[in-house]
Fold this sequence. Notes:
The protein has helices spanning 11-22, 37-47, 65-75, 89-99, 120-123, 126-132, 146-157, 185-192, 232-240, 255-266, 284-291, 331-338, 342-359, 376-385; strands at residues 2-7, 27-34, 54-59, 79-82, 102-105, 135-138, 161-171, 196-200, 203-207, 213-218, 222-228, 246-252, 275-277, 280-282, 305-316, 319-330, 367-370, 390-393. By secondary structure, the chain is of the alpha/beta class. Bound molecules: NADPH dihydro-nicotinamide-adenine-dinucleotide phosphate. NADPH dihydro-nicotinamide-adenine-dinucleotide phosphate binds at residues 8-13, 34-36, 39, 60-63, 83-86, 88, 106-107, 141-145, 183-184, 187, 295-296, 347.
Amino acid sequence: MAKALIIGAGGVASVAIHKCCQNSEVFDDICIASRTLSKCDAIKAQLEGKTKTKISTAQVDANHVDELVKLIESYRPDVVLNLALPYQDLTIMEACLATKTNYVDTANYEPEDTAKFEYSWQWAYRKKFEEAGITALLGSGFDPGVTGVFSAYAMKHHFDEIHYIDILDCNAGDHGYPFATNFNPEINIREVSAKGSYWEDGHWVETEPMEIKRVYNFPEVGPKDMYLLHHEELESLALNIKGIKRIRFFMTFGQSYLTHLKCLENVGMTSIKPILFEGKEIVPLQFLKAVLPDPASLGPRTKGKTNIGCIFQGVKDGKPKNYYLYNVCVHEECYAEVGSQAISYTTGVPAMIGAMMLATGVWNKPGVHNIEEFDPDPFMDALNKFGLPWKESFDPELVD
Ligand code: NDP
């Protein structure tokens, strides 16, 4: 029996909360805390009476360590699951440190005024967490998250050495809008409009945004255009998968999305530099977020599948070996089960599982760690149990 404090009440949090409530043998008590209390109360109202998990709600501004400390001290959770935005990672980690509470998130810290995401800020807490005897699990979504668990599983069971990893993230869902993002628009657009990069032979190779394109025939989905992006798990996997020679990340985008994005970029709407508008300072990207469809509203409209996974190439018993691990998720099925589309679903399920690993002590490694540093087996079993079954292929099509 465990208590989880879930911070945030957006698309991903809603799924993680539904999953905690399906898993009341572990999570018998949860508290949903976010900036807007009414959103927490609305999720509670959807679930109350349908679960054995006791649900409470609270208002908190997670930019303020003192507010967080007060809340954690009064609720006393076994784990804090951070599903707010990457901007709040460090304040929430500070509060966990002050109260000696385990910490889980799904995205690495990003300062609000510079679109630069990397682990250095959070890794700087390693010693402090170790000394406090608490665990921080970084990146327990799908990518980062399941992609790291897949990598640890491949290393443990299938390879002596992994030389190449290609992470392929395909969303073949159609929401019927010419342009919308499947998770927080501000975070999503910052990610995809940044320069691309990949890790090769011990260093980063930088590319222009969307410069490298491939077409891949995804199992159960079919051929899709995909583009090389920088992605945060590349940084930790390059360190944690010993002997790795190259690691790349590709995401699929449709032509309509790319055309709209280019146009919005060209007119300055994706900028994070504040401008004066009618005497008030506004950030163009935040204004754009306000006019775009709320990702949470895409659930009932989105049809089709996602396929996210990793292709590994390496050596086993002296022979070359290829191995592909992936999950296929159906948007309509996610909506029927928890009222969200598959992008929130594929992130919220592993977030709950990561919190469960720490809350139950199945994973216990004081310090600040990325997900591939833990034993993948219990997590892989939980993926099958909680709605993200994985599939494997020993003869996958490779990406050139
Ligand atoms: P949403 O925008 O839907 O939700 C964010 C939530 O955080 C909202 O409830 C928001 O409150 C709350 N919040 C924002 N600022 C604060 C604050 N200062 N104090 C308290 N609460 C705050 O985002 P998503 O659910 O789409 O994404 C959540 C996280 O998941 C993001 O960090 C995202 O990067 C990550 N993610 C990770 C993925 C992965 O595979 N690893 C994939 C997709 C997302 P309010 O409603 O008041 O604005």
